[in-house]
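Why do we bother with holo predictions? Because pocket geometry can differ from the apo form. Keep that in mind while you read this record for S-adenosyl-L-homocysteine.
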Amino acid sequence: MNIQNIIGLSREDLITHFEEHNVPKFRVQQVWNWLYHHGVHSFDRMVNVPAAIRQHLQESFVIERPQIATSQASNDGTQKWLLRFNDNQEAETVHIPEVDRGTLCVSSQIGCTLTCKFCHTGTQTLVRNLTSAEIVGQMMVARDVFGEWPSPVGGRHVSNIVMMGMGEPLYNYENVKTALKIIMDHEGISLSRRRITLSTSGVVPMMKKCGEEIGVNLAVSLHAVRNDVRDHLVPLNKKYPVEELLDACRQYPGASNARRITFEYVMLKDVNDSNADAKELLRLIRGIPAKINLIPFNPWPGSSFECSTAGRIQEFANIIQRAGYSSPVRTPRGQDILAACGQLKSASERQRKSKVDSNNTSDAA
Ligand code: SAH
Ligand code: SF4
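The structure, written out:
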């Protein structure tokens, strides 16, 4: 018999399974609560579930998380875990503690089909999409590490999620959606959609759907204001140019002044960091409830860009702020362990050898 991981199954799929096996539907609620509120690792712990049903579950499913292959801690408190899945593939998850929150940076793919020039992950061929179990599993492993079961109401070490790890989440849409719905479910992990941000490099046709069906905050990796520059930095721009991307942002469901779209803009010396770029940026985003996150470029072995100077970044930020937008400069975290934005790559000989045809993705660029 095929033993499936029960983690990562949607509530609807679990209900269907129970119906097919004549298990009363209300038991789904109990099992769900044990899995995602209490974080149990075994069916034996589900003490209010009758033994016969536990036995059935045991025969049908396993409760499985990714393994932590290596764990690294930065001197600023950031932790990076290299997680190993049961086919021995690996992806990275990063935890960033801050004064008022703890953010988990979650991966959606192993490698990436896109090849943004400044991104370390982009140098790794796509190996495969992560399953919903592997995406939820990243959150559950973090909760295991911090001992945050049962799901605490406030004061959580893992209070926010950003889908900003390895991969393009909108190229693994269904699994990301299933995973985030599990994470947001009020009877389980219960992270509010307002505390979840999904970052995309600009997969325009999926953005509306994402807003309607998942409803999380959107971050868009803009990085350039002219098509010629963006074509080079984010090659997906050749397919979905700046104007189309910004139209999709304008139409993003649920965007408002209370729920602004974040534009990410990596500061690259002499590439995209002039005052004229800042002014053009303001012109482009007019009418969009937005904040602009300026990301100092994080170097990685072999990268060919330089980060803009601190003075240049500040002047760029000032122009944007004077126009009334919030424009925080993201402090690089975990740089010493290559855990900062764009530095993730689960390179190993095995993965480098493993070349997967990019046709495997739903909408390969
Ligand atoms: N694929 C998605 C999400 C992952 S990348 C996306 O591209 O949006 C998360 C953010 O880090 C993106 O804004 C990305 O452009 C940025 N980034 C990538 N490489 C970087 C680097 N070397 N320095 C700083 N930010 C980088
Ligand atoms: Fe992929 Fe995002 Fe890196 Fe571009 S920036 S290569 S989309 S992970």
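The chain has two domains: 4-62, 67-353.
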